[in-house]
Amino acid sequence: MKFNTKTIHAGQKPEETSGAVMPPVFFTSTYAQEAPNRHKGHEYARVTNPTRTALENLLAGLEEAPHACAFASGCAAMDALMKMLRPGDHVIATNDIYGGSYRLFTEVFEPYGISFSFVDMRSIENVRKAFSTQTKMLFVETPTNPLLNIVDIASIANEAKKRNAVTVVDNTFASPALQQPLLLGADAVVHSTTKYIGGHSDIIGGAVCTNHDAIYENLLFQTKTTGGIPGPMDCYLALRGVKTLGLRIQRSCENAFTLAEYLTNRPDVDVVYYPGLLSHPGHDIARSQMNDFGGMISFSLSQDDIQSVETFMSNTRIFTLAESLGGVESLISHPASMTHASIPKKIREEAGLKDSLIRLSVGIEDVDDLRDDLDNAFDSLL
Asked: 15, 181, 216, 373: most buried, per Cβ within 10 A?
């Protein structure tokens, strides 16, 4: 099946008892058993729920994976993956990384004896130098949040395999519509389904897809034991959102490319970060491992001061000033004070994330309206 067909049919079939085409929302905590430990596939809702299973089957199909586990959030999904590790283990992670990931790694897992090296993964040599005998995992973001750097997934995964480490790719920015890391050699893919997969800014959710039985068994153990699971209504809304993923992503990519070119040609913009631009240093790798270049843009103003940034961001009407991304509506955010505030300023700046950086999540509105909205924001700086 082609991708847009998969978003509707992968792992799905009409509900057995009623023939319902859309999976019902199973609001239950308890399942009747025919005899002790003899049931119809579900024993307790923390362990499994039919609505959640339908979502997991669909996500697995989109990522070309035999297994998927849904979680209550993207952070819960990462937490479950990290719990495969033990004190003394080492992780190499992308240096330009989501602030919530950095906080989880450094403030939750480092105190338990797991060490992290944050490196610029655009250079495979940086990755090689960071390996130690204790390295068990490589955690990759690509495109990165918020600088839209591109990491060569196949090269990273190859280095990891040489050293018996697993490669995990956060695929939230791209979504399976644009990038399928397991086909490039990764061992697991993590998503915040809150973003493009849900697509309507109305749920919080996460997921991990994997082609490794051992990783999947660990994830099942975590859902059963620590219980970071999504509710059935969130699973239903994610299922509904996925059905239009391909169409939404296509429009978002078209709009983002148009706006990236527009921003590049403005004299009041200093630099534009968008992998679809030929000037982007990761353009060729992005073109080789992605189907399109995504709906995220970051840029800095020529007026490199916080006051100008705040003025600009406070004068958009269609772009909503808010955290998150990947919804049908366009959002504007300030990474240094919002999504990445948990990363110390010195470390942010070493990774290239300046306080003046602005991030756009480009939605599916008419692009002329979005461009006019940005024009008005630029006019507020005069």
From this structure: 181
Q: How far apart are CA 192 and CA 210, in angstroms?
A: 15
Work out whether the CA dihedral 258, 261, 263, 265 comes out positive or negative: negative
CA distance 125 to 195: 32
| Least confident window among 45-49, 127-131, 165-169, 281-285 | 45-49
Q: What is the pLDDT of residues 247-300, one digit of tens each?
A: 999 999 999 999 999 999 999 999 999 999 999 999 999 999 999 999 999 999
**DSSP character for 181?**
G
Q: What is the pLDDT of residue 351?
A: 78
Nearest to 181 by CA among 290, 23, 102: 290
Name the class of domain 3-242: alpha beta
Q: Tokens 């403005």 belong to which residue?
A: 266
pLDDT in tens, 358-376: 999 999 999 999 999 999 9
The token pair that represents 74 in the structure block = 């993207």
Q: Is 46 a catalytic residue?
A: yes
Active-site choice (6, 52, 136, 195) = 195
Catalytic annotation, pick one of 152, 170, 187, 234? 170
Non-local (6+) Cβ contacts of 213 within 8 A are: 67
pTM: 0.95
Catalytic residue among 6, 52, 96, 98: 98
Copy the structure tokens of residue 54: 């339908």
Query: For the chain, where are the alpha helices, taking DSSP H only?
Result: 3-9, 50-62, 74-82, 99-103, 124-130, 153-162, 213-225, 232-242, 245-264, 283-289, 306-313, 345-350, 367-379
Q: Are 68 and 208 in contact (CB under 8 A)?
A: yes
The class level of CATH for 245-379 reads alpha beta
Q: Is 31 a catalytic residue?
A: no
Domain boundaries, the chain: 3-242, 245-379
Exactly one of 46, 83, 240, 266 is catalytic; name it.
46
Q: Is 170 marked active-site? A: yes
Asked about 195 being catalytic, the answer comes back as yes
